[in-house]
Amino acid sequence: MMKRHSIRRSVTAALLTAGVAVGTLTTAAGAQALTPAHYGRWHHHVEGRVVSPEPLTVHYGPGVNRWVTGTISNGMHVWIVCKAEGSRVGANDRWYKLADGQGWVPAHYVNNYRYVRWCTR
Prior knowledge:
This protein is of the alpha+beta class and 121 residues long. It is built from one helix and seven strands. It comes from Streptantibioticus ferralitis.
């Protein structure tokens, strides 16, 4: 017969595993769920928060003339891979490449929490 703490530990492990699987599959468009599945990527990507009065438009490349691939709501957290120069938005010509592969967003509307490295080609 299993001891009570062993049963509790087994149930907790099963719930955490199920939560990680569901959390990584059910993220909203443009949002990154902060799950243990991302632990390995945190040291490579920079977290940021969208600060836009309107939904922020995501583009295929670093510029407003590039195809639109989606939008991100104000206040959403994003993961940034790198930055590049593009068309000027506000007083800023920097664009951030999103880690989820969704596209690029103007740096003018994203507060990054650490230094964002330059993209290399």
